[in-house]
């Protein structure tokens, strides 16, 4: 063990003397409080340490000891339903020890080492295994069967396997003889350093969409399983609501939600709501597939920097089991600010807006940990989808964090203050957002929704683009002086916006829309548009068409429950008859 | 153990550098005795094995390098608290503040570190209890709930003081006759504005249920850093140890941030936007996140920070970072103010993020959410129509747009606008909303559940 003494204290940064033999990113204990920290710079015998807890009361001369190990997380049964701080300390356990406020120097391990789990072996003695191979499984929750795997960098021949039974995670469940003849004993969990991506066999392009039940996303700007997306927007534009909606309704098998430097109440919201909400696929409570990492804005800033890594390492671990995992990080800007603060204290040369010059690299490395992969150790595929919120200063997209993020992610959901003020939610702008997955996902949609789906969406997007141009003109000359065809474009585009893209996250039915329902809704709108076009050709006046009662029915489509989709289908018939009546009237006259 | 030093080597702005100090701790409280016996305070901002950097709370004027005696007190900055604080006016360091308060200091029941500690997210209870402020523009549209932090974004010359005082006067929970108190922290405001609040509190009897911490424009700027922390420490004591519901008003956060910038500049830190330090977000969060509710505890802390936006610019770092931390914002609008509308609440840009769980059946009324959505949509359409009318003239608007235009006008005049002493209850606010919607065709009520529409606006009425 390497030990030194404190030389300097400046906020979350502590500099220690006598640390010549320490290594970068080693975990250290600072002072007799045993505050946890990590070495982020070494200069001669001085180590700069970012401390994950409040540093008030520390003194020069206080002891510092390096553990010789990097900051790691414990991976094993007991992760699901947990809520951790930025360095994987369980917040509910901290509360039992320290009360309602978080105090310092509390050391609690990430997993419960006393709890017993039903372990069922699948590997057998004599088998040669490598990292990632499944040794056995534990039914962790009703939704997650935890696969206990050989740690990534271990391999050998199984010489002993425990029989099925109830064990705690410290119990040795298998013994391996490695190539150099030594024996490795494997408990049910292992540690993994958070800053090091877990290895994979192969990365593939996403081929399936992550179905989110959010119409603007699934229909217009879909995200692939294993893909990356970012949601930048000014405050109050709906970043958190979108992240919560994805955590609730996305068809991932496992969800990791990282609250990084945001509000305490938002984590409470998840904690109180998720045990109550049902997974639309299984009917089980959503919390049974969720891990939360909560390092709120008032918790120590260095631990905020670590929290996204803690979260993504847990995500990778479940991906390695072969699950489709979705990770939400709200907000990556707070992570970047934590980097900026540490960088400033280290007196590094600042880059743009005071952010460190390596900001872009760190962001790219983080999103690169996402992917649709072939897992190591067996024939499994897993996916880790990453969605990061970005909170640019003043809502300005030229912000360095936004720009660095846009360079690496494939989906951009651009939140617009203008839409949020008009209470058009989700406030994802349809003109500047994009998804680079639409081509990859075409086959999937052709199969599931028919080949007419993709062209129909293209047409809808094109109508919205035409609307933007026409509105400009209408502003100058008045909507009334537009041609009837153009008026129809405005009418349809408005219907697309208000009746399809607008979606109320807080309405019991509207909060989630299956893709089947999305398709029917879209068909009704486009069908109406086509029928009206015919009517206009037969000289029916647009004014009359736009006042038809069908308008009200279309407006209510989104509130029709999933088990009554026929009611939406039926709207098409009402549309036909109402419009035909007008055409007939016109022909008689 | 008190250690005294006379080895000051540098004083610059609000900072003091002392040499050869041993055994002091980071954030330790410091006392500086001047030659004339005056005592100043400060705290340790940075230490290494040789030098100690001290931040002076009352500023450095009058301190000298050779004559200052620097004592380290072996503890962090604390506030003595007790229920006697109610009805009292303190300065930024917790001492009675003349001329508003000339009584002797309180006898503290206990001492509390003013930095507080982060609330464990697992211990939080989600705020969901509706607070009736008596303002339609707040209760109906941007509903405040207990434990929320909802700032007022104002501009110079706008009536934020009147709005805040009126909220403090009228705020109540329906059916709750519980223990309620106001903690008021003034940072760098003028004597006149401070006097306005104190007189309003005294006149309405609210003073008995108020604790005031006051740092005026003429007081040392640096003291503004500790003022809100003192106030929040008092609030936490009253809320969580004495079961009271506390409304904390912090005004003006812009002055607080400027004081923070002053210290950062004196330390020669790399400045962020507009010279404010890069950690402004984190620092503000350490104040705002002290609002909330805690499971199993009766009391609560609701925060209304007030800030003036330089040049009414919402993207200025202070309102911007505040908006990223708080649970919404109430924005005062200069145009409405010029039109004579009080409160000049910009309901479009204002937002209460916690309203969804604080409104509805058993809280306000079942129709509240739909009604709110519809009013917002209609007002927005009305404002669009107004923009159009400016270019094309009212006559060029479609008949529907003309109706929306009329609606927007009435909405501002009847719904947003109200008297300085008019407190509307929630029923009145909701009914007023329905009354105004009836200026529009019933078919436009797209955001309202059909069942509810039938109940609150039966079909027959539409055709008549
Ligand atoms: N899909 C939605 N349906 C209904 N309301 C929404 C929706 N999205 C956002 N809102 C409204 O907008 C408010 C702000 O959204 P949210 O908290 O997600 O903003 P944000 O972008 O995360 O802001 P910040 O950066 O400050 O955290 C919500 O409280 C809610 O009232
Ligand atoms: Mg948010």
Tell me the layout of helices and strands.
The complex is a heterodimer of chains A (589) and B (464).
Chain A: E1 2-10, E2 13-17, E3 26-30, E4 35-43, E5 46-51, E6 63-70, E7 72-75, E8 83-84, H1 91-98, E9 116-121, E10 128-129, E11 134-139, E12 145-149, E13 156-161, E14 165-168, E15 172-177, E16 183-187, E17 190-193, E18 202-204, H2 215-220, E19 228-232, H3 239-249, E20 254-260, H4 264-273, E21 290-295, H5 301-320, E22 324-330, H6 332-345, H7 359-368, E23 371-374, E24 381-390, H8 400-406, E25 411-412, H9 417-421, E26 434-435, H10 438-449, H11 453-477, H12 484-501, H13 515-537, H14 542-546, H15 550-555, H16 565-588
Parallel strand pairs in A: 8-21, 19-24, 19-25, 20-21, 20-22, 22-24
Antiparallel strand pairs in A: 1-2, 1-6, 2-5, 3-4, 3-6, 4-5, 7-17, 9-11, 9-14, 10-13, 11-12, 13-15, 15-16, 18-23, 23-24, 25-26
Helix pairs in contact in A: 5-6, 7-8, 11-12, 11-13, 12-13, 13-16
Chain B: E1 3-5, E2 8-12, E3 15-19, E4 28-33, E5 39-48, E6 51-56, E7 69-76, E8 78-81, E9 89-91, E10 110-113, E11 124-125, E12 130-131, H1 136-141, E13 144-145, E14 152-154, H2 160-170, E15 180-189, H3 191-203, E16 210-216, H4 227-241, E17 245-251, H5 253-266, H6 280-288, E18 292-294, E19 300-308, H7 317-325, E20 328-331, H8 334-338, E21 351-352, H9 355-358, H10 368-392, H11 399-416, H12 426-437, H13 450-456, H14 459-463
Helix pairs in contact in B: 2-3, 6-7, 10-11, 10-12, 11-12
Bound molecules: adenosine-5'-triphosphate and magnesium ion.
Adenosine-5'-triphosphate sits between chains A (233, 235-241, 262, 391, 425-426, 503-506) and B (323-324, 351, 353).
Count the E strands of chain A: 26
Helical percentage of chain A: 25-40%
Tell me the fraction of residues in β-strands of chain A, as a range.
15-25%
Structural class of chain B: alpha/beta
Report the radius of gyration of chain B as a whole number of Å: 25 Å
């Amino acid at each position: 063990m390497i030990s030194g003494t404190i030389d300097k204290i400046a906020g979350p940064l502590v500099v220690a003397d006598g640390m010549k033999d320490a290594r970068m990113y080693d975990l250290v204990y600072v002072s007799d409080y045993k505050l946890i920290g990590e070495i982020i710079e070494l200069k001669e015998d001085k180590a700069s340490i970012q401390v994950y807890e409040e540093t008030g009361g520390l003194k020069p001369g206080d002891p510092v000891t390096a553990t010789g190990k990097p900051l790691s997380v414990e991976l094993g049964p007991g992760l699901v339903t947990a809520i951790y701080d930025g360095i994987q300390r369980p917040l509910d356990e901290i509360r039992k020890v320290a009360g309602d406020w978080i105090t310092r120097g509390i050391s609690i391990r990430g997993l419960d080492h006393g709890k017993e789990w039903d372990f069922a072996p699948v590997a057998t003695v004599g088998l040669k295994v490598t990292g990632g191979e499944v040794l056995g499984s534990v039914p962790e929750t009703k939704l997650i069967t935890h696969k206990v795997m050989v740690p990534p960098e271990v391999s050998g021949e199984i010489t002993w396997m425990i029989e099925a039974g109830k064990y705690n995670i410290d119990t040795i469940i298998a013994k391996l003889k490695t190539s150099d003849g030594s024996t490795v004993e494997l408990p049910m969990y292992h540690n993994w350093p958070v800053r090091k991506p877990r290895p994979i066999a192969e990365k593939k392009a996403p081929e399936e969409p992550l179905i989110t039940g959010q119409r603007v996303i699934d229909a217009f700007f879909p995200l692939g399983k294993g893909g990356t997306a970012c949601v930048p927007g000014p405050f109050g534009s709906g970043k958190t609501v979108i992240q919560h909606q994805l955590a609730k309704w996305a068809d991932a098998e496992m969800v990791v939600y990282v609250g990084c430097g945001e509000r305490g109440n938002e984590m409470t919201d998840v904690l109180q709501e998720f045990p109550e909400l049902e997974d639309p696929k299984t009917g089980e409570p959503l919390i049974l597939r969720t891990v939360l990492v909560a390092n709120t804005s008032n918790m120590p800033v260095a631990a905020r920097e670590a929290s996204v890594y803690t979260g993504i390492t847990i995500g990778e671990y479940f991906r390695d089991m072969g699950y489709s995992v979705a990770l939400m990080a709200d907000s990556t800007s707070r992570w970047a600010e934590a980097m900026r603060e540490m960088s400033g204290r280290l007196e590094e040369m600042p880059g743009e807006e005071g952010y460190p010059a390596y900001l872009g690299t760190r962001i790219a490395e983080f999103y690169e940990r996402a992917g649709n992969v072939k897992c190591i150790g067996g024939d499994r595929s897993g996916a880790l989808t990453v969605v990061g919120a970005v909170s640019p200063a003043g809502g300005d997209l030229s912000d360095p964090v936004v720009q660095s993020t846009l360079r690496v992610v494939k989906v951009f959901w651009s939140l617009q203050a203008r839409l949020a003020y008009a209470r058009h939610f989700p406030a994802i702008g349809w003109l500047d957002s994009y998804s680079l997955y639409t081509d990859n996902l075409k086959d999937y949609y052709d199969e599931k929704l028919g080949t007419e789906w993709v062209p129909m969406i293209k047409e809808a997007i094109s109508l919205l683009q035409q609307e933007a141009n026409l509105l400009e003109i209408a502003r100058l000359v008045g909507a009334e002086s537009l041609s009837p065809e153009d008026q129809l474009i405005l009418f349809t585009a408005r219907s697309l916006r208000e009746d399809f893209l607008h979606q109320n996250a807080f309405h019991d039915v509207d909060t989630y829309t299956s893709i089947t329902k999305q398709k029917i809704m879209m068909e009704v709108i486009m069908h109406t548009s086509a029928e009206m076009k015919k009517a206009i050709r037969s000289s029916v006046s647009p004014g009359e068409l736009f006042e038809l009662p069908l308008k009200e029915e279309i407006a209510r489509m989104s509130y029709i429950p999933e088990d009554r989709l026929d009611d939406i289908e039926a709207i098409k018939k009402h549309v036909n008859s109402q419009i035909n009546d007008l055409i007939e009237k016109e022909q008689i006259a | 153990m008190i250690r005294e030093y006379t080895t000051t080597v540098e004083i610059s702005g609000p900072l003091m550098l002392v040499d050869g100090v041993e055994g002091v701790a980071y954030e330790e409280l410091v006392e500086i005795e001047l030659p004339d016996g005056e005592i100043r305070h400060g705290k340790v901002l940075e230490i290494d094995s040789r030098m100690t950097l001290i931040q002076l709370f009352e500023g450095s004027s009058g301190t000298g390098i050779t004559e200052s005696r620097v004592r380290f007190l072996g503890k962090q900055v604390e506030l003595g608290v007790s229920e006697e604080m109610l009805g009292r006016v303190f300065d930024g360091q917790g001492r009675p503040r003349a001329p508003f308060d000339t009584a002797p200091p309180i006898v503290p029941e206990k001492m509390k570190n003013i930095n507080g500690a982060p609330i464990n997210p697992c211990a939080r209870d989600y705020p969901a209890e509706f607070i009736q402020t008596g303002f339609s523009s707040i209760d109906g549209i941007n509903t405040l709930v207990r434990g929320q932090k909802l700032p007022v974004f104002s501009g110079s010359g706008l009536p934020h003081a009147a709005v805040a005082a009126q909220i403090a006067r009228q705020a109540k929970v329906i059916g709750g006759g519980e223990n309620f108190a106001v903690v008021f922290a003034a940072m760098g405001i003028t004597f006149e504005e401070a006097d306005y609040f104190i007189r309003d509190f005294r006149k309405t009897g609210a003073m008995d249920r108020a604790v005031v911490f006051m740092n005026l424009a003429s007081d040392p700027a640096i003291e503004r850093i500790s003022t809100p922390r003192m106030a929040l420490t008092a609030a936490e004591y009253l809320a969580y140890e004495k079961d009271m519901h506390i409304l904390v008003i912090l005004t003006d956060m812009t002055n607080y941030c400027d004081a923070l910038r002053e210290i950062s500049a004196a330390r020669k830190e790399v400045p962020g936007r507009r010279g404010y330090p890069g950690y402004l977000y984190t620092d503000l969060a350490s104040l705002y996140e002290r609002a909330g509710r805690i499971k199993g505890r009766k009391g609560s802390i609701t925060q209304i920070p007030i800030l003036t936006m330089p040049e009414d610019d919402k993207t200025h770092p202070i309102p911007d970072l505040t908006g990223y931390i708080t649970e919404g914002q109430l924005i005062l609008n200069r145009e409405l103010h010029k039109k004579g509308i009080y409160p000049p609440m910009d309901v479009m840009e204002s937002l209460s993020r916690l309203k969804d769980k604080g409104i509805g059946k058993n809280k306000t009324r079942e129709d509240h959410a739909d009604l709110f959505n519809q009013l917002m949509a209609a007002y927005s359409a009305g404002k669009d129509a107004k923009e159009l009318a400016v270019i094309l003239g009212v006559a060029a608007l479609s008949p529907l747009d003309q109706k929306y235009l009329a609606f927007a006008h009435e909405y501002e005049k009847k719904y947003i606008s109200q008297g300085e002493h008019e407190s509307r209850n929630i029923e009145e606010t909701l009914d007023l909303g329905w009354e105004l919607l009836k200026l529009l065709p019933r078919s436009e009520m797209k955001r309202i559940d059909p069942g509810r529409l039938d109940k609150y606006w039966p079909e027959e009425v539409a055709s008549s």
